[in-house]
Design goal:
mainly alpha, 16 helices, 407 residues
């Protein structure tokens, strides 16, 4: 399952890897560039919602396998036919619209299989697999683009989704398909009302939503930023700097694998909300500092990028684990869907706002400077600020010390 998830994840960062090349070729502003990435997230959030509903209705296994085939087709369409801002906007939206079946059903399968003592670790492994896919896409693109161009890199990511579908079938062929139970036509409405009256669940969803704003903006713009940071060193040709920036972004995603594993395992030991607070506060601090590092030594930029990536993703698995533990088992699919819709809905706007900020603050629209990048990265931190406060409230509700009985 983790290998399948890793393969499906390559398409997630395929566009981000080729932004430095397709932006000038397609004549896009920074705002338009970010909007194409936002289109993916909007489609993705819709697919997550539908996939979550299908988990409760027809079962997680069947949902995972059926939606995997659709993901293969949509990834191939984007890789072959995206050639302008408008075509990329449409095809990237469609690719996102058909890609969510490898995420929510996978989380549901894990939640149904593992008990609370090891669920954080299991969720961490599943999310770490996605980080591996992101890293493979960026590292592979860094090697493919100089030799064969950006479209070959997109085709590489599309081919990986086919491998993901085959691996998913192999992993789940002997797994029984279990739905949550009989579902009335409007039962998801009742489940939604129940979720919204559950304060711990509501806080977990709210904190995750703000977390997604920061994380999805980071993933969309980190490769382009590292290319600019490498170019600022003034050494090597443009193709070398492009390869260096994309490769460095891929390496930060490799670090994210350890982050997901560590965050999930640590949450089993010291508590879910403690891990979330440590990770979220550190990543927010990085958001406010990162963009101002243009012109600094590249090793400093990369070091902060590693810390940023580690802490931004390190609590993602923990958010998923918390939510499955504070809602009834029969509504896990709906809860994960609502969480994903809100998180990716807000996160879909983040790359666009980031790009607009670059456009509005840049003296030279073709080459935003340190000030523009600094302000743009600050938009990610500002959007995530309330998350730790929600987590503190969640901690008080879910991790209260036991009351002492009176003698």
């Amino acid at each position: 399952m983790c290998a399948s998830r890793a393969c499906f994840s390559l398409i997630f960062t395929a566009y981000a890897a080729v932004i430095p090349l397709v932006q000038p070729e397609w004549g896009m502003s920074s705002g338009e560039t970010g909007l194409v990435q936002s289109a993916w997230h909007i489609g993705y959030l819709l697919s997550l919602f539908v996939a979550g509903l299908l988990v409760d209705r027809i079962g997680a296994r069947d949902t995972y396998l059926a939606t995997g085939l659709a993901a293969c087709a949509s990834a191939l369409l984007f890789a072959l036919f995206a050639n302008s801002f408008r075509s990329a906007l449409l095809l990237h939206f469609v690719a996102g619209l058909l890609a969510g079946g490898s995420y929510t059903p996978g989380l549901a399968l894990i939640a149904l299989r593992y008990g609370t003592a090891t669920r954080g670790w299991a969720m961490g492994c599943f999310l770490a697999a996605a980080s591996l896919g992101y890293a493979v896409c960026l590292l592979g693109s860094g090697l493919i683009v100089p030799a064969w161009g950006w479209r070959a890199a997109l085709l590489f990511a599309a081919a990986a989704t086919v491998a993901g579908a085959l691996l998913g079938w192999a992993a789940l062929r002997a797994t029984p398909n279990v739905a949550a139970g009989p579902i009335r036509p409007q039962s998801w409405m009742a489940a939604t009302r129940t979720l919204w009256s559950n304060e711990p669940a509501k806080l977990a969803v709210g904190a995750y939503t703000l977390h997604a704003w920061e994380l999805l903006g980071l993933w969309a713009w980190l490769p382009a930023f590292l290319v600019v940071a490498a170019q600022a060193q003034g050494e090597g040709g443009s193709s070398g700097m492009l390869m260096a920036g994309i490769t460095l972004a891929g390496l930060t995603h490799l670090i994210s694998i350890a982050a997901s594993l560590a965050g999930g395992a640590l949450s089993d030991r010291i508590g879910r909300t403690r891990v979330i607070l440590i990770m979220s506060c550190t990543s927010i601090a990085c958001s406010f500092a990162f963009g101002w590092l243009i012109g600094f030594a590249l090793w400093i930029v990369v070091l902060i990028a590693v810390l940023y990536s580690f802490t931004a993703i390190g609590d993602s698995a923990v958010f998923s684990t918390v939510l499955t533990e504070v809602v009834p088992r029969e509504t896990i699919g709906v809860a994960l869907s609502i969480r994903s819709v809100l998180g990716f809905g807000v996160g879909a706007v983040s790359p666009w706002v980031f790009g607009l900020t670059l456009d509005l603050t840049a003296q030279d629209p073709g080459a935003p400077g340190a000030f523009s990048w600094g302000i743009a990265w600050c938009t990610l931190g500002a959007g995530a600020l309330l998350g730790p406060l929600m987590t503190l409230r969640l901690q008080r509700l879910t991790e209260r010390p036991p009351r002492r009985s009176k003698p």
